[in-house]
Amino acid sequence: MWIYNLGLVLYVWAIALASPWHRKAKLWIDGRKGLFRRMKESIDPSARIIWIHAASLGEFEQGRPLIEKIRKEHPEYKILLTFFSPSGYEIRKNYDQADYIFYLPIDTPGKARRFLDIAHPEIVIFVKYEFWINLLTELRRRSIRSYIVSAIFRRNSIFFRPYGGYWRMALESFDTIFVQNNDSKKLLAELGFDNVVVAGDTRFDRVAEIAAAAKKIDLIERFKGGTRLLIAGSTWGPDEDLLIRLINDNPRQVIVAPHEMDESRINRLLAETLGGAVRYTQCTAETSFDGKQLLVLDTVGILSSAYGYAEWGYIGGGFGVGIHNTLEAATFGLPIAFGPNYEKFKEARDLVTLGAATPIHSYEELKTWFTPLRDDEHLLQQCSRIAKDYTTAHQGATNIVLHTVFGKPE
After folding, report:
1. What is the pTM of this model?
2. Best exposed site among 33, 160, 337, 341 by fewest CB in 10 Å?
3. How many CA atoms lie less than 13 Å away from 163 in the CB half-sphere?
């Protein structure tokens, strides 16, 4: 255990050393300054607290259906939301469905005790990942009801390794472990856990909510006009290498939403699109899109609604560490393509197996995916229906979780 605690201290030192030159590291450090004082000033010591922890923005989106349903149906509780990463906290620190929003303190024994003393939660929900040993140990010691939702366990994870004893013990803190699939349940059964429920992934509930509440975006509507539209979401440089060629080979309207607002990459997209291109943030209600084939979505917060205007989707990240959110596009019935690094995402594997998604390794494969869907209406509608039906069939995890946590149908 001392190795774990020493590792945490070294981790904090490393981030602190990087913080003068690294923006996210600085936010990570600065966001935790005076944390306990701010918590103590904000949190009502008499309130009944449900604490929900999301590592970052993606996990927040998974937990969001739970938060909002608890808020609506259990107003007797105050909701404490924590993040580990600046990419979650800085974007959602003003989220109005949580009563208290803070960074999670580093998981030393003393900070774990102090955090729980101030937060005094009745119920704790961790979203998908992050098994902080000292916090979980302290939750178990205090007999606080604790759950993890939308979790996935794989054979090569630390729980199944000879040196994973502390992490296996940490799992004993959870009253119920809600997993996404039967494989995870079987793996946990090998460790002796029988408090496992296959609930699925709450992200399916979240993307259904997004689709139902999709924003009307006048600029995109005018840009699309009477044509069909391809949207490439959360792209990186290698994705854009291929997309520029596809754009120039096809007289179709295209939107590209880079994952990060890198000016050099945005300028490259604008310069190398032969059919004309424009940035979303430079458009107004009077902007004419005549002679403009590409719209660069250089803003955040509207991509999920923008998918609703498209006929085809491309998801970025697959030439790096892994693809981004495929479900936001699939819930609108978009056939999708992405790079080769998708295997760790169950929904992507499922969509590939069903024929609604295609992994690509090169421009030739991207073109081979797109051309039949562009030219064959029957194939397009068939793939669209498969994608939509898949996302619909997997909804319901939120209700399963809340039924267990609160002991009644929701």
Report:
1. 0.83
2. 33
3. 3
